[in-house]
Amino acid sequence: MEYISRYDYEQMTAETRDERMAWFREARFGIFIHYGLYAQLGTGEWSQANENYTREEYEQLAKDFSPKEGCAREWCELAKKSGAKYAVLTTRHHEGFSLWDSKVNPYNSYNACGRDIVREFVDACREFDLKIGLYTSLMDWHHPDSWKCANDPEARARFLKYIEDLNTELLTNYGKIDILWYDVSCPMGNCESWDSVNRNARLRKLQPHIIINNRSAMPEDFDTPEGHIHASDRDWETCNTLTRLGWGYIDEEQSAPFAISSKQILRDLHLCTCGGGNLLLNIAPAPDGSIPKDTVDRLLPVGEWLQINGDATYGQKFRTGPVYSANTLTAVSADKDLKTFYLWNWVWPKNGKLIFGGYLDSPKKISFLATGEEIKFRVDGHRIILEDLPAEVPDKITGVTALKMEFENAPRHIFRSYYPQMHQGTDFSEGYHKW
Hints:
By secondary structure, the protein is α/β, with parallel strands linked by helices. The protein is built from 13 helices and 17 strands. Strand 13 (377-379) and strand 14 (383-386) form a beta hairpin.
């Protein structure tokens, strides 16, 4: 078995990272699919642990595992229609049940119902031109060595081989895979105990262009904040759920009131975009693999909106953050050259006017992104005033109206206000009075 030092491994991956990450930096939006035996219980993906099922009790769920034909295609079709550029499937969650015809793990979907769900998912991703992500858990509630491995060297050796053999199957049986998405490096908390450097180095040889997230106790290619949007100085992707209740299936009718709206999905997507990251939004198929209607109803308008306003999010954007801003009703994303700004309006003004403070140069043109229709504006000091706006919200899909503001060169800009205040430890008051 080959071994490599952590230093050499990280040097090797750094040399190819920009090339491997190029598509990810353009994509901005992906769909996460949490599906497994837990869907039958309807109490979330942690049901086995949260409800203290014994392993023998939980195994009985495999007898009734019967996803409908074509469910993976349904997932990927929805992802495509939602405007996502990639999808990630939980091939084996913490419950230890593999969704493929595994020779390593007999506790799998093929032995339960004759179906290789990973194969169906991969084929559907390719049909709908989605990059392919395979989620793999390090924590495993089913394998007998999974909790012994922290303190028992022999159990650790067996379990590490099991984990690597499972992922070797995933990365050799299905053609090119774009993302290996690790989760929960428990019960061991460091990369040395998990032998992550050597395992990942060997797995990368199987898929030289693959990108790997930061959950195998190694930084790898990108960060994955969960449940909140937190910009990193590296490549990053926030993963979040529609309902904020759980990742696995929960009764649709009762969980629907907790779900975020299409408009809020776009707000989350904007926050990721302007922070230089991606949004990986989770859907939770029902026990038969079908997608709840409420999920479809929230995602389809997002895709329809992105089809005509996608320039505001897709592609490598400048990390605007608080540097370039708009106002309380409107937020900004910007192209890398900082000549084109996209204004995402959340609440449409009833007085026909929008004002953006802090811009020291005049744009050459402002228009509606969806139609190209120009908007009347004037510049007063260091603020841009949009005038004679329509009384009704222009966007009839989600109510989020996107505007396009174009400059001859990157505009000079200071934090919004004329008034002295502190922002991130910098006093801008002198600059205000100069202008």
